[in-house]
């Protein structure tokens, strides 16, 4: 008879990843529902929730529907068929959309009005305001509108993804026949049209653009009677699948697929309530969606556009501004220090947005570009900003005669076009540009600077958890190591030879590299903790990640729990592991923190018999990261950096912190308490001063 430790793992040990993601977005929505937060911060979370849901449908639901259309009968690890997953996701989504609309319509809108920020409808306007808006419509909006008739001579028009539209019913008095037309709300005109001059900063009144258009439909259909109009919005499959042929230029293949993406099949139809059933039937038929794909929205569609309200200059309705500090080892007072001189004294662990990206990672690349002793810069770019100082520095370095090698991942989802543009700019400047590896996305965040110092070559490195993007570095929580450790420099040299050449190296000194080394490396270290526990030595595992989905790693964590190893997981988003199940995972605790900053870093620590081992890098514990991406985890060898990581991670798992805890039934329970991120801001500020 098997012992409890060797008993088979139960079949229901995994949670559904799609439903777990919806739970994450529900946590975002809970912040919008939290009336203790500043009002415009709640507006921001309403917009983030809507934007998240758009991407979820464009990618995840689109993927499920694509697999369903192929007739695949595979079940998810939690045992659900594709049809069952779609049914559950649809029901959960409609519930969340209702909550989203309720908090906006019934709570946030009235509070905005109390604060002097109003969103009005056309019939609420005074005559003078309406007259000015008629002029605005005539001069700014009417010229860009294109009503498209639907009849035997005019087929149903293409409806672009995420566009806001009006379905208009008109009557022809000459033929006594009903007509139908589609009118797209232009996306190059502000969604919320200012009403009045807004001379007072305490007062701002807006009219939704679709309301302005609806009030002037008679001008668009002269000679016809406008009977009715309804607002709707379509979401399309936007996941690019590039057929990578070793003999075809990857850039050209991706550009071809991007052109196809806008014509992807519809996966969601949002309609504003109430919707005429006959019009809805036409939309369902012409868009080739099922009634289950229809999401009924009370009130305004596309609340992602609420970010325009967040941008209002109303500081009293927002969080107090936070100014990142320069890492104390990278400056002397207000005077920047040489990054190279600092790193020769030891590693620097930077924690964004608490530490300034501009005065650490960005300065590292900028100083390298300007330094006459630097011979080469090699860097990976996954996502960066529209006006990227990092890219500009690399261009300047190439123009100064340095060897610059940049791996631009042109398959980075939704940043493909921007990355293609950056790649071409870098090529024109003389940089050596590589587009990635066939069949893999290069997701690791690495930079290598080669410098000649007194006749000796020294390598300086950065390995991080976040993108080289100064804009997101102000709102994404990420970690990075700046180091002159020769072992790390040798590893990055080898890694870039893999990325740019034909090297097939898989073994490294200080790195675990996916797709060959991360899963197996982590499982081996988890099993090492099991051995330590069995021998009575200190054992424990802590993991901070965006998502934990990989079944093999989850099973290894279950085995660790059954061996008595304490496992603490800090997961922002998806978690397919079921904690707290007797005999399976009673030693595992899962916590999520969603707040002002997007928790984005990936950190793993092992007690390792009392000799703590720390790793950080770009990899989430998901199939795509471990099997289909180039990811890097770096072993943190510097003692000061390990202490700093402990001081960063331990408070997140401490009692009395505001968080959500995952229960064994898959539900999340919110706990009130101290604001972990606020405590980190205060601590960083105290250290800087």
UniProtKB/TrEMBL annotation:
Domain Polyphosphate kinase C-terminal: residue ranges: 338-504, 511-674
Reactions the enzyme catalyzes: [phosphate](n) + ATP = [phosphate](n+1) + ADP
Free-text description of this protein's post-translational modifications in UniProt: An intermediate of this reaction is the autophosphorylated ppk in which a phosphate is covalently linked to a histidine residue through a N-P bond.
Pfam family, one: PP_kinase_N
GO biological process, one term: polyphosphate biosynthetic process
Ranges where the Polyphosphate kinase middle domain occurs: 132-309
Domain of life: Bacteria
Top-level class of the enzyme under EC nomenclature: transferase
UniProt xrefs under CDD domains: PLDc_PaPPK1_C1_like, PLDc_PaPPK1_C2_like
GO terms, molecular function: ATP binding; metal ion binding; polyphosphate kinase activity
GO cellular component, one term: polyphosphate kinase complex
Keyword line: ATP-binding, Kinase, Magnesium, Metal-binding, Nucleotide-binding, Phosphoprotein, Transferase
Segments forming domain Polyphosphate kinase N-terminal: 14-120
Positions of ATP binding: 52, 476, 572, 600
EC number in record: 2.7.4.1
Gene3D superfamilies, sorted: Endonuclease Chain A, Polyphosphate kinase middle domain, Polyphosphate kinase N-terminal domain
Active-site residue list: 443 (phosphohistidine intermediate)
Cofactor: Mg(2+)
Function: Catalyzes the reversible transfer of the terminal phosphate of ATP to form a long-chain polyphosphate (polyP).
NCBIfam families, alphabetized: poly_P_kin, PRK05443.1-1, PRK05443.1-2, PRK05443.2-2, PRK05443.2-3
Family label: Belongs to the polyphosphate kinase 1 (PPK1) family.
Protein name according to UniProt: Polyphosphate kinase
Organism, as annotated: Blastococcus aurantiacus
């Amino acid at each position: 008879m098997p012992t409890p430790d060797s008993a088979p793992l139960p079949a229901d040990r995994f949670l559904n990843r799609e439903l777990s993601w919806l739970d994450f977005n529900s946590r975002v929505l809970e912040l919008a529902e939290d009336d203790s937060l500043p009002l415009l911060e709640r507006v921001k979370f309403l917009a983030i929730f809507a934007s998240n849901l758009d991407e979820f449908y464009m990618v995840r639901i689109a993927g499920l529907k694509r697999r369903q259309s192929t007739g695949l009968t595979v079940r998810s690890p939690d045992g659900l068929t594709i049809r069952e997953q779609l049914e559950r996701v649809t029901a959960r989504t409609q519930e969340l959309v209702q909550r989203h609309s309720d908090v906006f319509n019934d709570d946030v809108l009235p509070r905005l009005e109390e604060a002097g920020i109003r969103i009005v409808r056309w019939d609420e306007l005074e005559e003078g305001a309406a007259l000015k808006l008629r002029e605005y419509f005539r001069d700014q909006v009417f010229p860009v509108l294109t009503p498209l008739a639907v009849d035997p001579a005019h087929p149903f028009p293409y409806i672009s993804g995420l566009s806001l539209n009006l379905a208009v019913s008109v009557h022809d008095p000459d033929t006594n026949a009903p007509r139908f037309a589609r009118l797209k709300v232009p996306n190059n005109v502000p969604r919320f049209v200012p009403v009045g001059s807004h001379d007072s900063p305490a007062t701002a009144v807006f009219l939704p653009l679709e309301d302005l258009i609806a009030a002037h439909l008679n001008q668009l259909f002269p000679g016809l009677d406008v009977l009715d109009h309804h607002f709707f919005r379509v979401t399309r499959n936007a996941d690019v699948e590039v057929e990578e042929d070793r003999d075809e230029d990857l850039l050209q293949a991706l550009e071809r697929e991007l052109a196809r993406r806008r014509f992807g099949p519809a996966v969601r139809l949002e309609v504003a309530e109430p919707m005429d059933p006959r019009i809805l039937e036409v939309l369902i038929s012409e868009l080739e969606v099922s009634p289950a794909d229809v999401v009924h929205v009370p009130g305004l569609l596309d609340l992602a556009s609420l970010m325009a309200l967040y941008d209002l200059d109303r500081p009293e309705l927002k969080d107090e501004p936070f100014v990142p500090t320069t890492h104390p080892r990278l400056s002397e007072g207000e005077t920047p220090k040489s990054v190279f001189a600092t790193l020769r004294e030891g590693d620097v662990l930077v924690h964004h947005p608490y530490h300034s990206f501009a005065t650490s990672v960005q300065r590292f690349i900028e100083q390298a570009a300007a330094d006459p002793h630097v011979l080469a810069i090699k860097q990976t770019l996954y996502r960066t900003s529209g006006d990227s100082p990092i890219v500009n520095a690399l261009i300047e370095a190439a123009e100064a005669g340095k060897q610059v090698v940049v791996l631009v991942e042109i398959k980075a989802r939704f940043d493909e076009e921007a990355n293609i543009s950056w790649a071409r700019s870098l090529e024109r400047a003389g940089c050596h540009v590589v587009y990635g590896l066939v069949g893999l996305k290069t997701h690791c965040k690495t930079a290598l600077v080669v410098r000649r110092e007194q006749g000796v070559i020294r390598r300086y490195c950065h390995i991080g958890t976040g993108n080289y993007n100064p804009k997101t570095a102000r709102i994404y929580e990420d970690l990075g190591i700046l180091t002159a450790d020769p072992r790390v420099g040798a590893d990055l040299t080898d890694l870039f030879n893999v990325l740019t050449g034909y090297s097939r190296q898989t073994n490294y000194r200080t790195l675990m590299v996916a797709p060959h080394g991360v899963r197996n490396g982590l499982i081996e270290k988890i099993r090492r903790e099991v051995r330590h526990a069995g021998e009575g030595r200190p054992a424990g595992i802590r993991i901070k990640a965006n998502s934990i989905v990989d079944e093999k790693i989850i099973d290894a964590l279950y085995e660790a729990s059954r061996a008595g190893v304490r496992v603490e997981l800090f997961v922002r988003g998806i978690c397919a592991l079921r904690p707290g199940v007797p005999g399976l995972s009673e030693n595992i605790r899962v916590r999520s923190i969603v707040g002002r900053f997007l928790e984005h870093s990936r950190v793993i620590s092992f007690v390792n018999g009392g000799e703590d081992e720390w790793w950080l890098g770009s990899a989430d514990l998901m199939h795509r990261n471990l099997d289909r991406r180039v990811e890097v985890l770096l072993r943190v060898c510097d003692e000061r950096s390990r202490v700093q990581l402990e001081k960063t991670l331990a408070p997140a798992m401490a009692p009395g912190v505001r968080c959500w805890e995952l229960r064994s039934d898959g539900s999340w329970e919110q706990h009130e308490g101290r604001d972990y991120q606020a405590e980190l801001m205060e601590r960083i500020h105290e250290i800087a001063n």
